[in-house]
Design a protein that fits this description.
The structure holds three protein chains of three kinds. Chain B is an alpha+beta fold. Chain B is built from eleven helices and 16 strands. Chain B has a domain of 79 residues. Chain B is globular. By secondary structure, chain C is mainly alpha-helical. The chains are: A mainly alpha, B alpha+beta, C mainly alpha. At the A-B interface, helix 3, helix 4, helix 5 and strand 2 of A face helix 3, strand 4, strand 14 and strand 16 of B.
Chain lengths: 105, 436, 198
C-alpha cells in the first residue's frame, strides 16, 4: 500500500511541468527578480575600478594588451575562433569561412 | 563578390585590427575585444579602416560622421555582449541595415514581441548569446559545413548545454498544453517535428523589420550621369540603382522558399569551375527527404548577377574597394581592370574577358520568430495547389498529394453508381406515374 | 397479405444511424483532408475526422459485442439461394411490379445480397479503414512497432477505402427507397416496425 502511494507521488512529480522559477540564492535580491530564463549572469567585476584601464590609450592594440593582462586565456581562445580567423576548415579539406567564400554582395 | 582584394572595407567588421591584405598578422594583440564587449554603444569601427575604430572624428563617404572613440571610457565599461554589440556587424551585413540576412536587422536592438518573441525587449528580452551559447569564446551556431550543435535534445548539462537550436529548450515535441496535462489537439502538431523545422511554421515571413535586398545585378554598375554617379531611390527608400552597386531590388514581409536542410551548406568557392547554366547556386542547403537529419526549412533566396570569366569558367573576385590606380571598381568603374586586380590578389587566373552570370544563394531563416498566433496554419501547406511546400519532394503531404489514378477511378466508380441509381430511380418514377 | 414485423431493435437502429452520421461526416472531413473539399478548414477537418473515427471504432466495438452476445451475427452469414432472382428483380421485376423474391422474417431480415454486401463491409472495409487509420495516426511509432511501409502507401489504401465507402453509401441509400411504398424500408430502420408482404 505504501509502495503504491509512493509511486503515485513519484508519477505525479514526474508529470508536473518543470518551471525554472525556483529561487537560486537567498541574498541575490534584485538580480533574481529581473532576469528571466537564461539572462546573462551578473558581472563580478566593475571594470571602471581597474587602474590598467584608466590610461589614455594611444591605439586599440594597447587596450587589447591591457585586457589580456588579466584575461590571459582569452587571446588563445579568440585566435582559434571563427570571429577572428574568418576561416573554417571544411570536412572535405576545402577552406571555408568568410575569408574564402563568395556571395552576391 | 569576396573579401579577398577588398580587405579594408570588409574587415571593418573583423574582430581584429588591420587586416589589410592576405598577410595579416593573426597575433593576440590584433584581437578587437571591444567590438563585442563594449556596453556603451560608443565604440564603432570605421567602415574603411581595416577594422580600426576612428581615433579622430572622421567622415565616411563624405557624409556620415564617425566620432572619435574614447578608448579608455569604452575599456572601463566592458561587459557581456548585447543585441546591439553583436548587431553592429551582424545587423548590417551586406553593406547596410538588414541587407543580407532578412531575419536580423537593427529593429532587434529593442524589438517588440511582434517582431521577435524571444528578444522582445519588454518580455523575455533574450540577447544573441542566450541562444548562441558561448563557452570560452566559442560561439554556438551553424558553421559552414557543420550544423549547429545541441542536436535534438534538451539543454541539460549532459548535452553540454548547447542552447542554439529551438529544440534545445522546447524539446522535440514542443507544443505543450498551457493548462491541462495533455491536449489531443497538439499530438499532430508535435508529430510534424520529425520532418518540419520549427522555423518553417514560426517564421511565416521574413524581412519583417527592415527591407532586405533580394536581387543584385552588378552588370549594370558603373553608369554615370554628366560624369556624376547615380543613386536612384526606389521603394522602401533603398536604391534601385547605385553606380557602385548596379541594379537592386528590395522586399519586405516576404514569403520564404523551402528546402530540405540538414544544417549544412555546399559552397562554390572562387577558383572552382562553374558552367554558365544559369543561375549558378553558389550557396546551397544540403539535405533530402532520405537524410534523417534533414528537415524542411525556410530560406531567403538571393538572386544576383556577377562578373564571370567565360574562358576559364570562373566566378570573378573583383577588386571593388581601393584608391584610383589600384584597379578598384569603385574608383575606376572598369570591370576588366577590377577583375585583373582582384583575381591577381586571389591568386587565380584571369583570361581578360568579363561576362556576367546569374547566381543565387540561399540563406536559412532562424531569427525573428513571430508570435504563435502568426504561425502558419495547416492550409499553408496542406493544399492541393500553391501551398508553401509545393516543391518539396520525398514526403506524402496530405491535402497536396494523392494518387491521381486512384482518385480518378474512385470518382468514376462513384459517378457511375450515382448515374445508375438516378436512371433506375427515374425509370421507377416514370413507370409508377404511368400506372396511375 | 400484409403484416407488421418488428425487425430492428432499438440498439440496431441507434447503431445504424450513428454509423450513417459518422460515416458521412468522416467522408466529408476525410475528403477535405485529402484536398478534394473545403468545408471546415483543415485543422478542424483533421481533428473532427480523428474524433469521429475514434467514435466509430468505439461504436463498432459495442456493435461487435452486441452481435456476439445476442447471436444477431447470424443475420450476416452468407447464403447462396435466390441471389440470381434478386438480381433479376432489381433489373426487371421491380419495374413490372413483381414482388421481391425474398421475404423478410424476424429470423432472416436481410436478403442474401444484403448479407453479402454487409459482410464484405464489415470484414474488409471496416478493418481496412481502421487499420490504415491507426497506421496514419501512429506513423511516428512505426520503427518501435516494427512496421515497414510508407506513409504514402497507407494513405493510398485509406483513400481507396474512402471511395469504397462513398460507393456503398450511394447504392445503399438508393436501395433503401426500393420498398413499397418507397419509404417502407426507411420507416422500418427508423421506427423498427416494417410492413412486409404485398
Amino acid at each position: 500500500m505504501r509502495l503504491w502511494f509512493l509511486s503515485f507521488f513519484l508519477v505525479l512529480f514526474l508529470i508536473t511541468p518543470c518551471k525554472a522559477d525556483f529561487v537560486r540564492g537567498q541574498n541575490a535580491g534584485a538580480q533574481i527578480a529581473s532576469p528571466k530564463y537564461f539572462a546573462p549572469p551578473p558581472l563580478t567585476a566593475d571594470h571602471s575600478k581597474f587602474e590598467e584601464l584608466k590610461k589614455d590609450f594611444k591605439s586599440p592594440e594597447e587596450v587589447t594588451r591591457a585586457c589580456l593582462k588579466c584575461h590571459n586565456k582569452a587571446g588563445e581562445q579568440l585566435k582559434k575562433s571563427l570571429h577572428f580567423t574568418w576561416t573554417w576548415k571544411g570536412k572535405d579539406g576545402r577552406l571555408l569561412g568568410k575569408a574564402h567564400v563568395i556571395n552576391n554582395y | 563578390m569576396a573579401v579577398t582584394s577588398n580587405w579594408c572595407r570588409c574587415t571593418s567588421c573583423h574582430a581584429g585590427y588591420g587586416w589589410k591584405d592576405k598577410n595579416f598578422d593573426f597575433s593576440e594583440e590584433k584581437i578587437d575585444c571591444l567590438v563585442c564587449h563594449d556596453t556603451t554603444g560608443t565604440y564603432k569601427k570605421f567602415p574603411t579602416d581595416c577594422g580600426y575604430p576612428p581615433l579622430k572624428d572622421k567622415l565616411f563617404a563624405g557624409k556620415k560622421l564617425f566620432k572619435a572613440v574614447n578608448l579608455s571610457y569604452v575599456a572601463q565599461h566592458v561587459g557581456h555582449t548585447t543585441r546591439e554589440s553583436c548587431g553592429k556587424c551582424h545587423f548590417y551585413s551586406g553593406g547596410g541595415d538588414g541587407v543580407k540576412r532578412g531575419d536580423i536587422d537593427s529593429t532587434l536592438i529593442a524589438p517588440s514581441k511582434e517582431i521577435d518573441v524571444h528578444m522582445d525587449a519588454k518580455g523575455l528580452n533574450f540577447t544573441c548569446s542566450t541562444c548562441h551559447t558561448t563557452v570560452a569564446h566559442e560561439i554556438d551556431g551553424r558553421h559552414y559545413d557543420s550544423p549547429a550543435p545541441g542536436r535534438r535534445e534538451l539543454a541539460f548539462p549532459r548535452y553540454e548545454g548547447h542552447r542554439v537550436r529551438c529544440e534545445s529548450c522546447h524539446g522535440v515535441r514542443p507544443h505543450k498544453p498551457s493548462k491541462k496535462l495533455f491536449d489531443w489537439r497538439l499530438v499532430k502538431l508535435n508529430d510534424h517535428t520529425d520532418r518540419v523545422a520549427c522555423q518553417t511554421c514560426h517564421i511565416p515571413l521574413y524581412a519583417r523589420g527592415k527591407p532586405t535586398n533580394i536581387y543584385w545585378d552588378w552588370s549594370t554598375a558603373g553608369r554615370h550621369k554628366d560624369g556624376k554617379p547615380i543613386v536612384k531611390k526606389g521603394p522602401f527608400g533603398r536604391p534601385e540603382y547605385h553606380t557602385k552597386k548596379g541594379t537592386l531590388k528590395w522586399g519586405k514581409n516576404l514569403v520564404p522558399v523551402y528546402f530540405w536542410y540538414n544544417g549544412t551548406y555546399s559552397y562554390v568557392l572562387p577558383g572552382e569551375r562553374v558552367e554558365k547554366r544559369e543561375p549558378v547556386v553558389i550557396i546551397r542547403p544540403n539535405g533530402s527527404a532520405e537524410d534523417p537529419e534533414a528537415r524542411i526549412f525556410p530560406f531567403k533566396p538571393h538572386f544576383g548577377k556577377q562578373p564571370y570569366d567565360p574562358v576559364n569558367k570562373l566566378l570573378i573576385v573583383p577588386k571593388l574597394f581601393g584608391p584610383k590606380g589600384s584597379g578598384a571598381f569603385w574608383a575606376e568603374f572598369d570591370w576588366k581592370k577590377s577583375a585583373a586586380a582582384g583575381m591577381a590578389a586571389a591568386g587565380l587566373p584571369f583570361s581578360g574577358q568579363v561576362d556576367f552570370i546569374e547566381t543565387v544563394y540561399y540563406h536559412a531563416l532562424s531569427h525573428m520568430v513571430a508570435p504563435k498566433d502568426k504561425a502558419l496554419k495547416c492550409e499553408a501547406c496542406h493544399i492541393r495547389q500553391g501551398g508553401r511546400l509545393a516543391n518539396i519532394s520525398g514526403v506524402y503531404l496530405p491535402g497536396r498529394d494523392r494518387l491521381v489514378e486512384l482518385d480518378k477511378i474512385g470518382q468514376a466508380l462513384c459517378l457511375i453508381a450515382l448515374l445508375f441509381v438516378s436512371v433506375h430511380g427515374l425509370a421507377r418514377i416514370i413507370i409508377s406515374l404511368k400506372r396511375k | 397479405m400484409k403484416q407488421k414485423l418488428y425487425l430492428y431493435s432499438r440498439f440496431e437502429r441507434l447503431w445504424h444511424w450513428a454509423q450513417a452520421i459518422l460515416i458521412i461526416f468522416l467522408l466529408l472531413t476525410g475528403f477535405e483532408i485529402h484536398g478534394s473539399l473545403e468545408l471546415f478548414g483543415y485543422e478542424k477537418a483533421y481533428l473532427w475526422h480523428v474524433y469521429a473515427g475514434v467514435a466509430l471504432v468505439v461504436l463498432t466495438a459495442f456493435a461487435i459485442f452486441w452481435h456476439l452476445t445476442t447471436g444477431a451475427w447470424r443475420h450476416y452469414w452468407p447464403v447462396k439461394e435466390k441471389i440470381p432472382q434478386i438480381c433479376y428483380y432489381y433489373a426487371v421485376g421491380i419495374f413490372r411490379g413483381e414482388p421481391h423474391p425474398f421475404e423478410k422474417r424476424p429470423d432472416q431480415k436481410l436478403n442474401p445480397l444484403q448479407r453479402l454486401a454487409y459482410l464484405l463491409l464489415k470484414l474488409i472495409l471496416y478493418p481496412l479503414q481502421f487499420i490504415t487509420a491507426f497506421l496514419l495516426v501512429s506513423y511516428q511509432w512505426w520503427p518501435q512497432l516494427g512496421i515497414k511501409t510508407t506513409f504514402q502507401k497507407v494513405a493510398y489504401y485509406h483513400t481507396a477505402g474512402a471511395f469504397a465507402f462513398l460507393f456503398f453509401l450511394i447504392i445503399h441509400a438508393y436501395l433503401s427507397t426500393t420498398g413499397r411504398p418507397w419509404y417502407s424500408h426507411l420507416r422500418g430502420i427508423i421506427l423498427g416496425w416494417e410492413e412486409v408482404g404485398c
